[in-house]
Design goal:
Length: 66
Amino acid sequence: MRTTYDEADDILVLHLSEKPITKEVSQDWHTHISYAEDGSIAEIVILDASKQGAWPLLKAMLPKVQ
């Protein structure tokens, strides 16, 4: 799993798989889930992440990389 955060646009992306994305579904205005061909979740995008409370909450839960 890899996580990226765009501070300027307040977008958090959780990359759960490196599989190619074949389908994207909007759960609501702020949450979008991308699926691989086998139906597994490949990526989750959270818009306005800090406003939604997902960042820095998830940041605190992620393992620290040294």
